[in-house]
Specification:
CATH superfamily: Metallo-dependent phosphatases
Structural class: alpha/beta
Order of helices and strands: HEEHEHEHHEEEEHEEEE
Number of domains: 1
Radius of gyration: 19 Å
Largest sheet: 6 strands, mixed
CATH architecture: 4-Layer Sandwich
Shape: globular
CATH class: Alpha Beta
Length: 267
């Protein structure tokens, strides 16, 4: 009887590990949120990809590329941790090239800092695209149809130095987005005070991976810099914050109970 118990337990554990390694990380979700005030008006389609942690262009990455091409976003937001190795810039370049000509904005995450990524190289990569920007404490405004759209992109809260002076919106902007990788930033008292007078239409973060391993919605572990946030929408002073579960994995190449996601916002 004890031998049979251990055999069954071992097989169950191996099955669980196999699913967490090969099945869950490939179970890509596309989650859509219509945030338009006027549903009869054509929206600005924003797609958020977070925490790609690109190391190669494999089957999972190809699935993300195909989804992006099908969604045809007006703006693609890469909200940090695109890569986690210093020599992975060519992989990111290949990923962006495969996406085709889509307006793209990116901010750094903690892993771009920790891996000592060449930020000048990142900036040149995005500048080389027809309509791309890498924002390291910067702003970018463009016109979509008859609306002015402003993106505020801050440095990462966990490993970098976000500039709080940028927490204000352009007066003539019709849509203003704020992107910052680590959501714990938004619980800082000074951040809340500064944002109260500058209403952003949407704030976007990632970093948490939704816990990467969760049991019925409970995530026992989240990286430093996550604060109280796990995934989904949070009403914050000055904006509605969305925390993405991300696409890739970090530290351990597993996911359980937290499918990777592509997030679509219509604004």
């Amino acid at each position: 009887m004890p031998t049979r118990f251990w055999i069954i337990s071992t097989l169950a554990l191996l099955t669980l590990l196999g699913m967490a390694t090969f099945v869950e990380p490939a179970r890509l979700e596309v989650n859509r949120y219509d945030l338009r005030a006027d549903l009869h008006r054509p929206g600005l389609r924003v797609v958020q990809l977070s925490d790609l942690h690109l190391q190669s262009i494999g089957a999972n990455e190809q699935k993300v590329i195909q989804q992006l091409q099908a969604l045809r976003p007006d703006l693609l937001v890469l909200s940090g941790d695109m890569v986690d190795k210093k020599d992975a810039l060519p992989v990111l370049a290949a990923f962006l090239a495969a996406l085709g000509p889509v307006r793209t904005v990116a901010v750094p995450g903690n892993w771009e800092h920790w891996s000592e990524m060449d930020f000048d190289g990142l900036r040149k990569l995005f500048d080389s695209r027809p309509d791309g920007r890498f924002l390291l404490n910067g702003k970018w405004a463009f016109k979509h149809q008859d609306r002015v759209v402003e993106v505020v992109g801050l440095d990462d809260f966990t490993a970098g130095h976000p500039d709080l002076q940028l927490l204000s919106r352009r007066e003539d902007a019709d849509v203003t987005l704020l992107v910052q990788h680590s959501p714990g930033f938004f619980d800082k008292a000074e951040v809340g005070q500064r944002m109260k007078g500058s209403r952003f239409d949407l704030c976007m973060s990632g970093h948490t991976h939704g816990g990467q391993i969760a049991f019925w919605g409970w995530a026992p572990f989240r990286p430093v810099g996550s604060g109280r946030f796990v995934t989904g929408f949070y009403d914050m002073p000055g904006c509605r914050l969305f925390v993405s579960k991300g696409v890739g994995t970090s530290v351990l190449p597993v996911r359980w109970g937290v499918a990777p996601e592509v997030v679509v916002f219509d604004l």
